[in-house]
Design brief:
Helix content of chain B: 40-55%
Number of domains of chain B: 2
Radius of gyration of chain B: 24 Å
Number of helices of chain B: 13
Number of strands of chain B: 11
Strand content of chain B: 15-25%
Strand order of the largest sheet of chain A: 1-2-5-4-3-7
Oligomer: heterodimer
Structural class of chain A: alpha+beta
Number of strands of chain A: 7
Structural class of chain B: alpha+beta
Number of domains of chain A: 1
Largest interface: A-B, 15 and 19 residues
Distance between the termini of chain A: 21 Å
Order of helices and strands of chain A: EEEEHHEEEHHHHH
Number of helices of chain A: 7
Largest sheet of chain A: 6 strands, antiparallel, barrel
Strand content of chain A: 25-35%
Radius of gyration of chain A: 18 Å
Largest sheet of chain B: 9 strands, mixed
């Protein structure tokens, strides 16, 4: 992941616990990140605070025109590129809010206010991801998420957090996260086992 | 609910029956017309004399002057592209316009024209270039004609058509210039509908001359850029060829104002060509209308042919279109074949050109967009100290509509 700030899209709608971003394409380009499941993103508020969230769902909308193109089996590259690049059907990316930041501090709890409509959403770089995931309190928020596929999301986010670290720190990071999960899921060993399986 | 459908059920049944009867009646007439076509297929000097006679006795008569040797010609273009065949390489440019007409019940008197355009380079694999240009007209000089009357929809439609054609000419010139003077690349500009404008008979001569002058001027720009203007008429409702066919069965002496206006085929459209195979076209014709003569005087006489743009064989799958282009383009068989192949390829989705569908989509102004525009306008008025208000009648309608939702 590059250390340059990269925009993912803009906020379509938001609440304290999650928000949705509209973006126009799934392909990474200069200054534009392809949204990926489990990625940490941030919304910058005008008061300087930052809301952090994990991408947990992506929806590609269709319309009658697209359906007809598919049904007719039209395989014309120009039409396909036209649909992908020019037509104004946004890709909706859902984000679970997992914390917020103020100045140099990061808090693993819900922010005082959700991001505003059309706020810019950026991908977090490796340094931010390492900083955000230094403590494990955010795991509880993900485990409690009702609308997101929490277990898969947690596994994907932890893999990304480990990958953001230097190779010699990755395993110890995952072991530490696994211990915290074992504590949180002491009463649900089947679920714990499912998550740990996905981390391997 | 304002429309009480239960009160219409009887009328709808009668309507269905009438449509079926008319369909069968027309089918018989089409069969008669096809028999006549077979009998009088050869274009003779006598037929040409009859066409001249019909034109002379009734200036409003709109028949088809055949530009070929036979009325029943059929052509499949050289290098015809089959659905799974090679991709033709033409540049297709389409433009379409949409409008908001002035409404004296709205918060302000204005009208809006939105021109959508697309440039699709076939075979490039690249996304087409798309654009839409909205223009709002609100000055008194925009809104009222020289007699002080608010512009009517007909005048606004004409202005919209001018913007469409000017956009096509501009884009074609830019494409040709980007090709660095390469004239081998075919460039087609597509308009949704006929190239010849419909002008009411009451139109003053000066206005007619001005209109033809403008449109023919744009065609000349396109001709200089080596781009071919094409009018694509989906499900054509004209009967030009049938009117000519009707003359073929009459003696010259029989042709008078009465007979040309009361032919038995006059209510039929040119379904005569429904039997064309996919990507097959009819012979070339030119409308005998007075307005086409005027275009001819400017070197821009318009010709047309019918073609099946459907990609599946069979009468029930035929999608017959009337395709118009200036005679200078239609005269060259190889240009014509390239143009037809390129259009046919672009009709793969459902028989209508993709580029025209997209140009429409880029142009169309929906009710939500109109409401958003008027909200913006209302805010701009408030900032200048004017309270925006619709008429009492418009307000009533808005309230009623909200209740129905």
């Amino acid at each position: 992941m590059s250390d340059q700030p990269i925009m993912v899209g803009r906020v379509l709608r938001s609440s304290t616990t999650n928000f949705s971003i509209g973006c126009t394409r799934l392909i990474a380009e200069q200054n534009q990140m392809a949204p990926e499941f489990g990625a940490l993103v941030k919304a910058l508020s005008s008061d300087g605070s930052v809301a952090y969230g994990l991408i947990y769902n992506e929806t590609i909308e269709d319309d009658a025109f697209v359906r007809q193109l598919v049904a007719a089996g039209v395989d014309n590259e120009e039409y396909i590129e036209d649909q992908r690049q020019n037509r104004q059907i946004p890709i909706v990316v859902d984000v679970l809010v997992v914390g917020f930041g103020r100045g140099t501090d990061i808090f693993h709890r819900l922010p005082p206010q959700p991001p505003g409509t059309l706020d810019r959403i950026y991908a977090c770089n490796n340094a931010e991801l390492v900083r955000f995931s230094a403590r494990h309190d955010w795991l509880r928020t993900v485990l409690a998420a009702a609308d997101a596929p929490a277990d898969q999301l947690l596994a994907a986010a932890l893999r990304r957090a480990a990958q953001a670290r230097s190779p010699d720190q990755r395993e110890s990071y995952l072991v530490g996260a696994g211990r915290e999960l074992a504590r949180l899921l002491a009463a649900d060993l089947t679920r714990l086992d499912g998550i740990l399986q996905q981390l391997r | 609910m304002a429309l009480e459908l239960n009160k219409l059920s009887g009328q709808v049944d009668q309507m269905g029956q009438a449509i079926a009867e008319r369909f069968n009646r027309h089918r018989q007439l089409i069969e008669q017309a096809q028999a006549m076509l077979a009998e009088h297929a050869q274009v003779s000097d006598e037929l040409r004399a009859k066409i001249r006679q019909a034109h002379d006795v009734d200036q409003s008569w709109r028949g088809a002057e055949p530009l070929g040797e036979r009325l029943d010609e059929r052509h499949t273009p050289a290098g015809a592209v089959q659905p799974a065949g090679a991709v033709p390489s033409a540049i297709l440019i389409a433009a379409d316009g949409s409008q908001i007409y002035p409404d004296r019940h709205a918060i302000a008197t204005y009208y809006l024209l939105n021109t959508g355009s697309i440039v699709l380079r076939q075979g490039s694999g690249q996304a087409p270039s798309v654009k839409s240009i909205p223009q709002i007209f609100f000055e008194d000089s925009d809104l009222y004609d020289e007699t002080g009357r608010l512009l009517d929809p007909e005048q606004i439609n004409r202005q919209r058509d001018h913007l469409e054609l000017a956009a096509l000419a501009e884009l074609a010139e830019a494409e040709r210039s980007a090709l660095g003077g390469d004239i081998a690349q075919t460039i087609l500009t597509l308009s949704d509908g006929p190239l010849l404008p419909w002008m009411p008979q009451r139109t003053a001569n000066d206005a007619l001359r001005q209109e033809v002058g403008y449109l023919a001027g744009q065609f000349t720009r396109l001709q200089r850029a080596r781009a071919i203007p094409v009018g694509f008429v989906d499900r054509p409702g004209s009967a030009y060829v049938l009117r000519t066919l009707e003359l073929a069965g009459q003696n010259v002496e029989q042709i008078n104002r009465q007979t040309v206006r009361s032919g038995k085929f006059r209510l039929l459209t040119d379904r005569l060509f429904a039997g064309l195979a996919p990507n097959q076209r009819s012979g070339m014709f030119a409308s005998t209308s007075e307005i086409n003569d005027r275009f001819g005087e400017q070197g821009q006489r318009v010709a047309f042919f019918y073609a099946n743009m459907g990609h599946r064989p069979g009468l029930q799958n035929a999608v017959i279109a009337r395709i118009e282009m200036p005679v200078w383009a239609a005269r060259d068989p190889s240009t014509l074949d390239t143009a037809q192949n390129a259009i046919y390829q672009d009709c793969a989705l459902n028989g209508f050109p993709y580029v025209l569908g997209r140009a429409h989509e880029l142009a169309v102004v929906g009710t939500v967009e109109r409401a958003n525009l008027e909200a913006m306008l209302g805010q701009a008025m408030l900032r200048c100290g004017i309270t925006p208000a619709t008429s009492a009648k418009a307000e009533y309608k808005r309230l009623m509509a909200a209740r129905r939702r």
